[in-house]
Specification:
The chain has 325 residues and is an alpha/beta fold. It is 40% helix and 15% strand. Belongs to the cysteine synthase/cystathionine beta-synthase family.
Length: 325
């Protein structure tokens, strides 16, 4: 019998989905790794599991302990699920700019949630730095530290990358994904480049992030802003150090919205905002490479966590955006 062992045993091995409408438009195979089908609903389940199990192996986390993290939501949701499954407490520090759906879900899952003002990473009260201090003050606690904990990218080097390689039978020409911590992009890029150095690895980046300018010029120079959550960065995390960066594609909010709504209306996929950035970058990459290529990206989470924002015309209007027709 093929039976998985609880939540933990169900993480990973997600399908690769052909995005039919975009594939037809471009003449390429545009494939999305269906990470929204992980048991916690996002790609971050993989990193959360690796971070906790690494801490267990190293003796840093003992029975009844606490996992502390600063997160824009999805990593915290994955951690909370796994803490429930393994008997740990979970303390999440989250910027107050994140969707109410994610904050409510974290509390439903039993995590202690502290919302804090969104301030730059350079500020000592940035949510990431604050979570690190809180962890240091507690007994039998770890700081997940997803941005600079290499267990994050290792989870994708060990699992996501090999799955993509096997599912495409090695016939992949390009990989693109947005980065927040950098774990997903980095782990997959490192693995795929080892298998075939000719695979193009391209960062997808929203406005407001400095990674596009970093790849293009070597300088981190954020411009503009974006409604997308949990992606983009103004620094190079440990997970992104030494990682293949063949190019970068910048995607603005109207284009990300257009893609998200096309996925919903033509492909039947109800996705979050980061998916709009990822798939838009994959489409641009397909147009750059020309017909006949295979481009893989990640469908990192579903749309329900953003329903009051991305799928709400009134909220979009407050950001100067219109719901695509």
């Amino acid at each position: 019998m093929d039976i998985k062992s609880g939540f933990v045993g169900t993480v990973g091995n997600t399908p690769l989905i052909r995005l039919d409408s975009f594939s037809r438009e471009t003449g390429c195979e545009i494939l999305g790794k269906a990470e929204f089908l992980n048991p916690g609903g996002s790609v971050k389940d993989r990193a959360a599991l690796y971070i906790i199990e690494q801490a267990e192996r190293q003796g840093q986390l003992k029975p009844g302990g606490t996992v502390v993290e600063g997160t824009a939501g999805n990593t915290g949701i994955g951690l909370a699920h796994i803490c429930n499954a393994k008997g740990y407490n979970c303390l999440i520090v989250i910027p107050d700019t994140q969707s109410q759906e994610k904050i409510d879900l974290l509390r439903t899952l039993g995590a202690e949630v502290r919302t804090v003002p969104a301030v730059p990473y350079s500020d000592p009260n940035n949510y990431v730095k604050l979570s690190g201090r809180l962890a240091a003050e507690l007994d039998n606690a770890i700081w997940a530290n997803q941005f600079d904990n290499l267990a994050n990218r290792l989870s994708h080097y060990d699992t996501t990358g090999p799955e993509i390689w096997a599912q495409t039978e090695g016939k992949v020409d390009a990989w693109t994904a947005a980065t927040g911590t950098g774990g997903t992009y980095a782990g997959v890029a490192l693995y795929l480049k080892e298998k075939n150095p000719d695979i193009r690895c391209v960062v997808a980046d929203p406005l407001g992030s400095g990674l596009y300018s970093y790849v293009k010029t070597g300088e981190i120079n954020p411009q503009g802003s974006s409604i997308t959550e949990g992606i983009g960065n103004s620094r190079i995390t440990a997970n992104m150090e030494g990682v293949p960066l063949d190019d970068a594609i910048q995607v603005d909010d109207p284009e990300a919205l257009r893609v998200v709504y096309q996925l919903l209306r033509q492909d039947g996929l109800f996705m979050g905002g980061s998916v709009g950035i990822n798939v838009a970058a994959a489409v641009q990459l397909a147009q750059d490479l020309g017909p006949g290529h295979t481009i893989v990206t990640v469908l990192c989470d579903g749309g329900a966590r953003y329903q009051s924002r991305l799928y709400n015309a009134e909220w979009l209007a407050t950001k100067g955006l219109a719901m695509p027709q």
